């Protein structure tokens, strides 16, 4: 019976002494101890086994028991001393509390007296400064009235001058005057209920409207809009068709009037390219929000084709330096623009995806005219990059959906783990994008495209590879590629089914294929990218 009561007492004591981890950590920081008896996870059996590791060590059991009893006696003495000390502290605390309450009452009385005296002083100050405040208010109102009258005089005079300058079309003077009038008019927003102020405001609005109409009419008169509707990218073919016709007419009418050493036809074509690049850059900056990826690729394709035609016809000697090289023999064909080509009127400007995403002719390495016009498209290639970002995201989502729908690869004992088809599709798509981007630019856009592919290759690794590894029986979490590679031979092989082993082999093979292909793409990227950005290369994400 006594043993049962002792056990219940011990259980109740353990429940009371069970401390939270935060409290236990704070105690260990304040009172650090290496004694195993002070540990929160103290295990009596392990402690006894530490004291008596062998049967021969039991010979000292009486000595160990005496030491423990001595330690218990010392702990009891310490606890008794602390408890008595706390009893005395409680009595001293009550006495100190009573003294503090008395001091607070005395302090409260003194504060009340001070407050009464302050109220009396404030009343006296109010009576003394009443007249001074009235004078201050009068001065403030008078100053406000004078300032408002000055602003009104400035507004009235400014409106009259604004109307006069508008009639005389003095736009330079009107620009500064109108801003000043608008600033002064802001001070009268709260006075718009007064008829005279409202009339001045209406006159300012009428002058602004008249100015806008006059300026637009003057611009339309000075810059007629005839022919400007063919200036956007969807009509870029008309630019190149026009210069072709002009060069043909020039050679037929005036080609024999100038020496061949002057290269007049090439000079005209080069000047056209410079002007076209400048004008296209301006209009694309102005209408940047209207640029779409299909329209941009369409314009780049037509432009690179035109640059290729220039390379066939001209030597590019006027592009290098001022010295002219004498031709040893005249070219066989005087003008390639006479070749049969569909005209813009005969050819519809279709923008099919297959026709636009890949230029018809790759850039020739020895083309001196490459980039003479198409360089203006490089600042806007972010449209193409964003489009590929979206396409790669949709491609990853489709891979995930196909994997879930088709399930893991079927087990086949005749062959090892096959590379997932989606992995090959992903790299084929990126290689196609990289080839296409290299034809557009070999600078920062190519690096940006590689960075985007790096992001989606990492998503592929997590969503398709790591995300589809089978779960182990020992834990609810799934496997990882790194954990599989670290396992020893023969460890936990029996816990996977044949289908799971086939899936693991396929995922490992796919990861190895991704690693090798990524390294190859890095080397290709170093070869194609400009030397100025060769240091910015994507890292392997597997």
**What is the molecular shape?**
flat
Q: What is the rounded distance between the termini?
A: 67 Å
Give the helix/strand class: mainly alpha
Low-confidence stretches: 222-229, 321-365, 536-542
What integer is the average pLDDT? 76
The number of strands is: 0
Number of helices: 16
**What is the H/E order?**
HHHHHHHHHHHHHHHH
Into which percentage range does the β-strand content fall?
under 5%
- Alpha carbon gyration radius: 45 Å
Biggest sheet descriptor? none
Helical residue percent band: 55-70%
Short description:
Helices cover 66% and strands 0% of the residues. The chain has 542 residues and is mainly α.
Question: What does this 3D model show about the protein?
Answer:
This protein has about 550 residues and is mainly α. It contains 16 helices and no strands. Mean pLDDT is about 75; it is low at about 220-230, about 320-365 and about 535-540.
What labels describe this entry?
16 helices; 542 residues; flat; disordered C terminus; mainly alpha
What is the fold's blueprint, element by element?
Elements: H1 2-16, H2 21-30, H3 44-51, H4 61-168, H5 171-185, H6 195-222, H7 236-253, H8 264-286, H9 293-313, H10 317-320, H11 353-356, H12 382-406, H13 421-440, H14 444-465, H15 481-486, H16 498-528
């Amino acid at each position: 019976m006594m043993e049962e009561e002792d056990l219940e007492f011990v259980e109740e004591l353990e429940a009371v002494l069970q401390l939270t981890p935060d409290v236990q950590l704070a105690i260990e920081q304040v009172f650090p101890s290496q004694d195993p008896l002070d540990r929160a996870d103290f295990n009596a059996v392990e402690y006894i086994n530490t004291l008596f590791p062998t049967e021969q060590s039991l010979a000292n059991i009486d000595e160990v028991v005496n030491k423990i009893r001595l330690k218990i006696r010392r702990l009891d003495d310490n606890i008794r001393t602390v408890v008595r000390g706390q009893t005395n502290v409680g009595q001293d605390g009550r006495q100190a509390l009573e003294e503090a309450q008395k001091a607070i009452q005395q302090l409260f009385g003194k504060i009340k007296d001070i407050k009464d005296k302050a109220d009396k002083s404030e009343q006296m100050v109010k009576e003394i400064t009443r007249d001074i405040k009235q004078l201050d208010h009068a001065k403030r109102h008078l100053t406000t009235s004078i300032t408002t009258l000055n602003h009104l005089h400035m507004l009235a005079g400014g409106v009259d001058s604004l109307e006069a300058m508008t009639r005389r079309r003095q736009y330079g003077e009107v620009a500064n005057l109108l801003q000043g009038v608008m600033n002064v008019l802001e001070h009268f927003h709260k006075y718009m209920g007064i008829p005279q102020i409202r009339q001045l405001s209406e006159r300012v609005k009428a002058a602004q409207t008249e100015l806008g109409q006059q300026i637009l009419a003057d611009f339309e008169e000075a810059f007629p809009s005839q022919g400007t509707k063919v200036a956007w990218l969807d009509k870029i073919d008309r630019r190149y068709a026009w210069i072709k016709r002009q060069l043909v007419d020039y050679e037929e009418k005036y080609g024999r009037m100038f020496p061949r050493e002057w290269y007049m036809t090439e000079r005209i074509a080069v000047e056209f390219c410079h002007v076209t690049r400048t004008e296209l850059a301006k209009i694309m900056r102005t209408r940047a929000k209207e640029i779409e990826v299909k329209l941009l690729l369409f314009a780049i394709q037509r432009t690179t084709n035109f640059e290729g035609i220039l390379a066939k016809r001209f030597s590019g000697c006027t592009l290098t330096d001022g010295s002219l090289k004498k031709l040893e023999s005249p070219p066989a064909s005087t003008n390639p623009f006479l070749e049969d080509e569909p005209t813009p009127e005969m050819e519809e400007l279709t923008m099919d995806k297959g026709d636009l995403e890949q230029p018809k002719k790759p850039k020739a390495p020895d083309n001196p005219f490459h980039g003479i016009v198409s360089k203006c498209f490089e600042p806007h290639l972010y449209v193409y990059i964003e489009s590929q970002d979206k396409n790669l995201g949709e491609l990853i989502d489709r891979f995930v959906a196909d994997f879930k729908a088709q399930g893991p690869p079927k087990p086949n004992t005749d062959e090892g783990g096959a590379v997932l088809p989606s992995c090959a599709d992903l790299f084929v798509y990126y290689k196609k994008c990289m080839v296409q981007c290299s034809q557009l630019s070999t600078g920062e856009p190519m690096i940006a495209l590689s960075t985007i592919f790096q992001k989606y290759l990492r998503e592929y690794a997590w969503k398709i590879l790591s995300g589809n590894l089978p779960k182990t029986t020992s834990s609810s979490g799934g496997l990882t590629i790194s954990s599989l590679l670290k396992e020893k031979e023969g460890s936990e092989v029996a816990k996977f089914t044949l289908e799971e082993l086939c899936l693991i082999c396929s995922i490992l093979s796919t990861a190895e294929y991704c690693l090798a292909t990524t390294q190859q793409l890095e080397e290709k990227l170093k070869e194609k990218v400009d030397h100025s950005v060769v240091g910015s290369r994507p890292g392997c994400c597997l």
